[in-house]
Amino acid sequence: MPAIVNKVLSGSIAEELEIETGDEIVSIDDATMQDMIDYNFMTKSEILTLEVKKLNGEIEVIEIEKDFDEDLGIVFESAVFDKVKPCLNKCIFCFVDQQPKGLRNTLYIKDDDYRLSFLQGTYITLTNLTEKDKERIKRMQLGPFYVSVHTTNPELRVKMLRNPNAGKIMDNLQWFRKNKIPFHAQIVLCPGFNDGDELERTLADLASLKNTVLSVAVVPVGVTQFRAEELRQVDEVVAKKTIEIASKYKKVCLSDEFFLLAGEPIPQTSYYGNFSQLEDGVGALRLLLDNYKSISLPKSISKPSKFIFATSYAAKSAIEEIVNDLNAKVENLEVILAPVKSNYWGKNITVAGLITSDDLISAVKNIDADTVVIPSVMLRPYSEDFLDGKNLDYVKSETKKKFIILSNNYSIKEFIDKIAKI
Q1: DSSP 35
Q2: Residue 85 domain-assigned (yes or no)
Q3: Rg of the chain over all Cα atoms, to the nearest angstrom
Q4: Euclidean distance between CA atoms 114 and 99, whole angstroms
């Protein structure tokens, strides 16, 4: 896909040059670009020449003089301008492969592209990393990357990823160490496969790579009702054993679900370091609780008001603590907690990012309150669309309620600011 402009930032150089949405950046200083890595590198110069193809097909050549590192203010439709490197694995735990038909097309795309890992923090398996890729990574000193390791046992990794190249994982990670390429590691824990002694082996191998490994996140496998083959869920016994094993190693953090399943408290802030794998659910509840404690609550609001907090079952215990506190301390405020049961995916899926429109409707429709509060993670970024393709207008119509979307999924400060004005 070419370098198509999706948005031009207000007050930017691009706006001044009348670059518009839909224009294509053909080249910079007569050089074409593979991706945003090239674009970021090429636009650092103080003097550069842009070749722009306008929507009407005309080609404009624009000479630019700017400060070193000054951004042009262009947002592209995609981070890569050629073809995204596809995933060649058939992982036994792949969530994409256990989705039903009928969802939006982007949910069925499986990429395994080192460039997206560097630019956007997506996870890669390194099974399709070529020598040419390595040469570019080394030459440009790219990193950090986010690597789905899962296991360092070659035979087991081939079995879990169903790809003969999967067994080369330690060779690739040792190449990272040799060339000082840092990475974050992820392990999707599948009971009966890579837990217990196998997890111990993997964490020991990663520890041997020392400072090349920035963090290690362990998350439980997600099993939906659409999965064709049998996989065990992480239960209380597995969760407790995993916590015990992980506690022996530095830089290893477990996702919140392990502590909830084990009936143990969410760890303190120091456990999570710099929250480097927050998007993987590692530390989200702790950050939410910490942020809430930093908020100054109003003593009261001007008129009696009811709100519904729609939340995932995974976050229920943390949100319940906050709800009880709000109800006890803020006069005229009543907050009702509404955990959303996942009828769509099945009972084993308990995270907010996978809540669908009809499940949300079922959870809040019959509750006596006019306004529902939801985290933005329930919606597709920069939209009001749910995973099942329906949008917030549909939910409003079905529930006859108003909605507040918290733009920061890990803080309730925005909600407090809104109710303080009532």
Answers
A1: B
A2: no
A3: 24
A4: 24
